[in-house]
Amino acid sequence: MSQLHTVNKSPLDRNALESAIKHASKGNAVLMIEDGVYGAMKGTQKSGVVSDAMGDISFYVLGPDLKARGIDEGRIIDGIKVVDYSGFVALVAEHEATQSWL
Amino acid sequence: MSNIKKFLYVNRKAPYGTIYALESLEVVLIGAAFEQDVALAFLDDGVYQLAKGQDTTDVGMKNFSPTYKALGDYDVNKIYVEQESLDARGLTLDDLLPLTYEDEDDDWAEKDSIKVVSAAELAEIMDQSDVILSF
């Protein structure tokens, strides 16, 4: 089963991103949305959590939520793919199940 | 004049994901009409509220970040941002909106409203406040 995990909380405020990554199986995908997009930024206390898991999990971040928060795409951790709303829908359709980490 | 109290608004949430940031800003603007001694503190995820370059066109929400620039006109010019919170998020003062006010005691010279302070300094500011409103 290939699952999609969505995370909508800031990793510096809650442990949703860390928990999602810890419980994601190899080949799963993590999509950061809403305040979860702060987890995609380089140079934060939590950036290592994402870069360490990059080999086993594919990471995506929702572009409109980055833009709303003033986060330039140049400040995103290398390897994370930026998607728009139709990309979000495609990810949900491509995976067998979606799990929301609230 | 002796009934002027020192108000401190404590902001600890990121904008947009929850309503706290916008609500805080609205309360600050309403409170500014009562001529109290007002200060704002931004710490933890609250520092994200002041990020430059916010553009909410694609998410269909109101971008309220330009409103922070109006605070100076309401005599709200003590804006404390915690250094440790910026560091944890890989941010510097350059990533934040330039907030200024005109100092009436100094020939209306334009001055910076934001002061970056340590957690220890912020603790002192909190301790010296009469009323603290948390968001």
Entry summary:
The complex is a heterodimer of chains A (102) and B (135). By secondary structure, chain A is of the alpha/beta class.
Keywords:
heterodimer; A: 102 residues; alpha/beta; Hypothetical Protein Ychn, Chain: A; 4 helices; 5 strands; B: 135 residues; two-stranded antiparallel ribbon; 7 strands; globular
Description of the structure:
The complex is a heterodimer of chains A (102) and B (135). Chain A is built from 4 helices and 5 strands, in the order E-H-E-H-E-H-E-H-E. In chain A, strands 4-3-2-1-5 form a 5-stranded parallel beta sheet. By secondary structure, chain A is an alpha/beta fold. The model of chain A has no long low-confidence stretch (mean pLDDT 97). In chain A, 45% of the residues are buried. Chain A has one domain: DsrEFH-like (Hypothetical Protein Ychn, Chain: A). Chain B has 135 residues and is an alpha/beta fold. Chain B has one domain (6-134): DsrEFH-like (Hypothetical Protein Ychn, Chain: A, 3-Layer(aba) Sandwich). Chain B is 20% helix and 24% strand. Chain B is built from 3 helices and 7 strands. The radius of gyration of chain B is 15 Å and the shape is globular. The two termini of chain B are 28 Å apart. Chain A binds chain B through residues 8-10, 12-13, 34-35, 38, 41-45, 47, 63-65, 67-72, 75, 84, and chain B through 13-18, 44-45, 48, 51-59, 61, 63, 65, 88-90.
